[in-house]
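To whoever is on call:

I kicked off a structure prediction for a single chain this morning and the downstream step that reads the tokens threw a length-mismatch warning. I double-checked the sequence; it's 775 residues and nothing unusual in it as far as I can see. Pasting both halves so you can look.
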Amino acid sequence: MKGRWIYAAAASLLGNLTSLHHPAIAIIFSLLALFLVKRNILAKKNMIFLLLIYLAFTIRSELAAEYNRTSLTGNESNFEITLSESVKIDGDLLTVHVEMTEKKEKLAVRYKIKSETEQKFLSDYLRVGMTCRVNGTLQTPPTSTNPNSFSYKDFLNHNSIFWILELQQLNLSDCTYHKSRISLPILKMREMGTNHILEHFPEQTAPLSIALVFGNRSFIDEDIIDSYQKIGIIHLLAISGLHVGMLAGMFFLAGVRAGITREKMTSILIMVLPVYAILTGAAPSVLRAVFMMLLVLVAKKLKIPVQLADIISIVFAGYLFISLFVIYNAGFQLSFAVALSLILSAPAILKKFTHPLAALLSVSFICQIAAIPILLWHFYEVSIISIIANLIFVPLYSSIVLPVVLILFIFDLITGERVDFLLYVLEKMIVFLNWIAEMLAAIPNSTLILGRPAPLMLIIYLFLIPVFFAGWERSKNKKAIIKNGVLPILAIVIHYFSNVFTPAGEITFIDVGQGDSIVIKLPYGRGNYLIDAGGALMFQTEDWKMRSDPYETGKDTVVPFLKSKGISKIDKFFLTHGDMDHIGGASAVLKEMKVKSVVFPQGAEFSEAENNLIVQAANSKSEILFTKAGDSWLNGDSVFQVLSPFGGEMGDGVRKNDGSIVLFAKVGGLNWLFTGDLEEQGEGQLIKSYPELKADVLKVGHHGSKTSSTDLFLSRVKPRIGVISAGRNNRYGHPHNVVMSRLNDYNVKVLRTDRQGAITYFFKGDSGTFSVQLP
């Protein structure tokens, strides 16, 4: 199997996917096996070995899925737990993953801190390895309630965690150190090292140093992480093969300089590397790099010739066999995909370049092309300027920032002497690099938003990208390189056209909790309309309670949903009225998306928040429009008409809700009425002005408040389907029982985001179907 272990890795992956996803993947394995035999790539005895690997992983995955379940009922209230990692305290919220001492089941713990004094006390004294007796309630983790959104439940389940433990109280007097697993001393070292850096390193240098030394980037400001992500250099903030290789090299040379033989240093490295993996958090990229180096060192010690392609294939198969569900981890996917692409393609491709800059550019290009399908699946966009950004940042990080951080940390730790001047210089450099990253991230249209690829599109990427690499390796001149370079561009073009110019359209009521946000995506790329963007009321709170990155509806729900659908431009953004549960997420939409026009209700008295949005829209070069009853337009087969507000006709006593923009639309063979927060007075004016108004689908006004959806209104409009956008267990009691009873009396089928998640109507021409996210 020498030089052929990559086929074993493919068999292990296909076996895993056959069990966890679909039995039909067995056909892909059969075709691969037939191809390898027909082309005489593998001998028959090797094919038997490949079949055994495939079956072993299929059976292993079946058993793992069967036994990956909880042993708890959910009614337990008393627990003895051991902290298996350092606690994270963010404002008044403490979170940590723990292990139950008796049942050996893992739990995700949440605790609402009561006071600033308690916050400081827990931060100073609660340490990894402590065993505590606590009381609390078990809750099922929330699943994704919008298409393509992150599922916290799946994330926890893939890590064998099935419950969130909400603590009622956390007393350190109930916590002690007990004998625990062998990795505890290493985890304590990690915690102590992290605290040491926080105490001794400057403000901007400390978070980055913790990420580079211990693999924990939770201390880095979210804005900086967003900037690095947008320009495609987020990998620099994670420990990778470069970090492991550099540290191992420094350690090896230091030992040799100290008089230790190379053979002994090799043996020491083999023992130290697994400890280093645990010390840095055992992230997929770290484990890949560590175990690849371990296999190389062992092979060298035993004088066994190996190929890097075989090494990474063996590590992949071994990693996947031990931790089957890691296949869902984006870091795992990116680490192995990029590393394998470099191992297979870089040697042949780099021979074509003699200039160091050209070689660096080609390596960066290989990495970016290999990562495209994974980035699109998880993040829905790719950076256009990532190659340039990597040319700037990779040399600086690899040759200056990383080695300097490692040397200064070790020097400060061993000698106890402060190196203030060097830390000051490093601080200025990091501040400057962060500033460059933010400037590059702020460049308009610096990312290409394509949305999550459909399964067929994913197959096209996975076929065309390897073909491109193979062609690039064989190309003998620039003309051939350019010709092959068309392939990844072709994949992107196919993805773009299949998403934008599809004959299908959709209308989605996004689950934004207690609020409204509706997306209308018309067929053939004719237009994307957004009605409101959700949001939440912001209350004044004490500084110590403030979260570093609080949940924000627009940034965390609306924008990711739009991007997942491949929407990069909003043609009309309707802000129906000024309540924060409708406009609170609008700022993030204006910041992240290209918005052609922002539409406000005419005649309304604007709040400070609305005025701020007008200024932001103007600065973003968006057209600012004020609409009123009578405005209308056609778009293909679809008709849109504004029915409200009526301006001064309703008098000075009109409530803000009754001044909402009300939009009537004929789309996908149905008549739609989007009512904002319209209440009884506004509904009365509406049916008075439009006595023949009828709608198939009614966006129920004001989240189902008892002051809306009156008998008179429902009897005139005669909706067949009513959609209610409301938050789960909201404080207002929406939708009200009276409204639900009225809707039932008029035979209106009700769909609710608080129970069914996002509600989507998919259509082609004049026919379509409704779909809900939660069954």
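Update from on-call: the warning came from a stale cache, not from the record. Cleared it. Sanity check on the structure: The chain has 26 helices and 24 strands.
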